[in-house]
Input
Amino acid sequence: MDAEFAAFVAAKQHGLLRYGMLLTGGDPHTAADLTQETFLRLGRRWRHVRDVEHQDAYARRTMTRLWWSRSKRDRREQLRAEPEERAVADTGPDWESEVWAALQQLPPRQRAVLVLRYYEDCSEKEIAEVLSCRPGTVKSQASRGMAHLRRLLGVDLADGTVRRSAHE
Output
């Protein structure tokens, strides 16, 4: 293995694994698989990747595309009448759990934009590069994603208050 690539993997593996966890809804096995497959693909193209100006964005774009293709395939293969119950790790207060659950209900592109923006702290330009789209698309997907989250969480847009559901 190229020493420069090994150093890149060592420096970026935790960040990419965290990004994979956010994309997959906290599934550590799928996140690890995505991270490994991302590094395999980057390793095969390392002569090209080493010359890329923003290697982080290139790696995130590779992982995002892998995740999109897997999520499309998985949705086709795993249609069920009832949703599968998943174990959820204790992520802190209930509010965080509600946000986490709502984030998982967003369409893939909106989720990717919000994860990159608010969890990975990427700029609109960086997100556009990762997702191979225009910054205007990033803005519209972020706006739609936030509006969708507000609806799912019951946030009143007029005054920002939270409407709790009747079952609480």
